[in-house]
Amino acid sequence: MPHTEQIWRNVDAVRREAPLVHSITNFVVMNVTANALLAAGASPIMAHAREEMAELINIVSALVLNIGTLSAPWIDSMFLAGAAARERGLPVVLDPVGAGASTLRTTTAAQLMERVRPAIVRGNGSEIMALAGAAGATRGVDSTRDAHAAADSARALSLRHRCVTVVSGPVDLITDGDEVVLVTGGHALMPRVTGMGCTSTVLVAAHAAVAASPLEGAVSGMAAMSAAGSMAAERAAGPGSFAMHFIDALYALSEADIRARVRVGRP
Amino acid sequence: MPHTEQIWRNVDAVRREAPLVHSITNFVVMNVTANALLAAGASPIMAHAREEMAELINIVSALVLNIGTLSAPWIDSMFLAGAAARERGLPVVLDPVGAGASTLRTTTAAQLMERVRPAIVRGNGSEIMALAGAAGATRGVDSTRDAHAAADSARALSLRHRCVTVVSGPVDLITDGDEVVLVTGGHALMPRVTGMGCTSTVLVAAHAAVAASPLEGAVSGMAAMSAAGSMAAERAAGPGSFAMHFIDALYALSEADIRARVRVGRP
Amino acid sequence: MPHTEQIWRNVDAVRREAPLVHSITNFVVMNVTANALLAAGASPIMAHAREEMAELINIVSALVLNIGTLSAPWIDSMFLAGAAARERGLPVVLDPVGAGASTLRTTTAAQLMERVRPAIVRGNGSEIMALAGAAGATRGVDSTRDAHAAADSARALSLRHRCVTVVSGPVDLITDGDEVVLVTGGHALMPRVTGMGCTSTVLVAAHAAVAASPLEGAVSGMAAMSAAGSMAAERAAGPGSFAMHFIDALYALSEADIRARVRVGRP
C-alpha cells in the first residue's frame, strides 16, 4: 500500500518527467483539466480526429477517455485511440461520466471496458455501480451514492476486468479487486466545482504514467488531488476562489502538505 | 410582481431542491455556466447526442437551448430535446446568442420559438429585436441596443409566442406581454466577462424549475444574477477577478444581499 | 520598429474601436481567449458552421484560425472563412497548434498557409519549424525549441508566404522575413497556463485589426501580452491565480506598464 514517500515520489516524478497525457474528453472540462495537468507538471494534449489518433498515441505517455459529452465520431476515436494505446502498453484511464443516466453512456462505457481494457476506471459511486451492473440510479452526472456503498461494485468491476477501480467521494476508495485503499482528504466544496472528478481522472493518468503500478498511480493521483483540495479550501471564499486556489495548490504541493493533509489507509 | 421574499424563496428552493438543468449550449460558456449552476445549488448536465436526448430529458427539471456555436447535428438535438421537454411540461429557456448576426442563427432561433415554444427567451436587446423581426443590427454576440429600446419587441415577442421575454442590460426588462418588470443591479464589468448573458439564462432556468410561474422564475433568476454581480464588483480588480468573485457570490447570496443590491419595479 | 508609443496607440485603439474578432479555434481555449479579447476591449465571436461563415466574415474585423482540436468539418469552415476574409482584406492570423505532432496538423497548417495566405502566423518554436519544413520534433503542443533556435525557420516562412511570423517564447521573435523584432517580458508561469499561446494569437489579431501594418500589430499584440504577463506574475501564487490576474492586467494595462515591463528591440 503506497505511503507518503511513494505519493511524493510520483508527484515529483510527474514534475520531472512531464508525461504527455492525451485526453479525449468532454467539452465542459477541457480547460480545467488541461490547467490541472500543467499545474501538476504534466503536459496535456486534446484531440479527437480519427486521422491523427495513431500518430498522437505514439508520442504520449497516457490516455484519458471521458464520456461526458459523447457523440458517434468521438466514440469511434475513443476506440481507435484506446486500441492503439493498449498495443503500446500505455495506461488508459476511463472516466464514465454519467454512466447509468442514459443507455448511450452506460453502453459506451461498458464497451470501452470490454474492448479497450483500461488500466484504471475512475467514477463516482453511481457511475461505478452502473458500470458494474448494480441496481441504483445515476442522477445526471453527480453521484447519489457514497464511495462506501459502491465498494462491492468496485471490487466486482476490478475482478471482472482486471483493472483498478477508483470510486471518488468524501473518502476515495481504490481497489484492484484484491487490495482496497482508502484516501481521506479534500473538502466539501469540491463537488460544487465542475470538473473536479474529471480532474482527478487526469491526475491519476499522469501519475499512472510514472508509477510502478496502476494501483500505486491511482492512489497517489487521488492523494495529490485530496491534498490540493484541502489546501485550496483553507483560502477559498466559495467555489470560484476554490477552483483558482486548487490549481495554485497543485503547483505548490510539497511532501509536507501530503503528509499533513491526506490519510491513506485500509478499510 | 415578485418581491424580495419571492426572489429569496426561489434562491433557497434551488439550493434545497437542486434542480438538474440540461443545457445544449455553446462551447465557449459550458464551463462557466456549469459552475454558476453548481454555485447556485443546482446541478448541471450537458449533452448533445440525439441518442440520449429522450432519456436525459426524463430525469431533468429544466432545459436550456443556447445557439451560440450552432451546427446541424446540434440543431437536430435541440428540436428533439425541446419537443421531449415540452411533452413533459418542463420549462425550456432559449438563449438566441447572436440572432440577427447570421441567417442560420436568426432562422434557428425563430424555428425554436415556433416549434419548441420555450417558456422563456433571454437575450440582449439586439437579439430580442432580431427575433421579434424588428429592424436593428446585431453586432456579433454583444448587444448594440439597450434594454429599454427593445421593450416593444419584447412585448410583441411574448404576445406572439405566449412566453416570457427577458432583455438583459444595465436594467433588465422581463415581460409576459402583459406585465413588465424591471430589475436593476449588476455592474458594468459584467459585459466584459464572456458568458455572463448565458449564465443568466441558466440561472433563469434553475429558478423556473422551482418557481410558481415562468415570469416569477425569470425575475428571480435575473435578480439573483444582479445581486451576485453587484457583490462581485465590490471585490474585483478587473474582469478576471470579477468572474471568480461572481461564482463565490452566487454561492454565498443571502436574503439581505438581495434586499440591499437589487431593485425590482415597474417601468 | 514599433516603440512604446505605437504599442500604446494600438492598445488604446483596440479599446476605442472594439474590433470584432472571429475565431475558429480549439475547444480548450475558447473561454479564455474570449475573456482575453473582452478584457483588452475587443469583442469575440466564435462560430464554425459552414452556413454562417460568409455572413459573419462580413461583420468582423479579423479572423483567427487555430488548429488545436481539428476535425474535417471545422477544417472546411476554416478554408471557407479564410477565403472570405482574404477577399475582404481582413487580417487572418493562423495558430498552428501542434504542427509537427501529426500529419493532419502539419498538412492542414501548411494548406492554410498556401491557400488562405494569413497575414500573420503565431506559434512556438517547434510549430514554426514544423511549418517551415525544418527538422525537429514537436512534443505534443508544448514547444521543445526556444524562440531563437527557430529564427531561421521564421524568416524562411515569412519570405516564402509573404507573412509575418511570430515565434513565442521567453523572448518573442517577430519577423516579416526582412526586419526582425524581439519582445522581452512575460513570465515563466505563462507556459504553465493552458491557452496562453492561443491568447497571444487573438491579441495579435485584435491589434492587427487596428494597426498600420501586420508587423506592427504582431509586435504590439505580443508586447501587450508580455506586459500583462509581467504584471500578473507579481500578484500570482501559482498558475491558477496567474490566469485571473492576467485578465485583470490586460484590462488595466497602461502606457506606463508597457514602458516599465517590456523591451522591444533588434537581435
Automatic annotation (TrEMBL), chains A, B, C:
InterPro entries the record matches: Hyethyz_kinase, Ribokinase-like
MF-aspect GO terms: hydroxyethylthiazole kinase activity
UniProt-listed Gene3D superfamilies: 3.40.1190.20
Catalyzed chemical reaction(s): 5-(2-hydroxyethyl)-4-methylthiazole + ATP = 4-methyl-5-(2-phosphooxyethyl)-thiazole + ADP + H(+)
EC number: 2.7.1.50
The organism's place on the tree of life at top rank: Bacteria
Assigned keywords, A-Z: ATP-binding, Kinase, Magnesium, Metal-binding, Nucleotide-binding, Thiamine biosynthesis, Transferase
Family: Belongs to the Thz kinase family.
Protein name: Hydroxyethylthiazole kinase
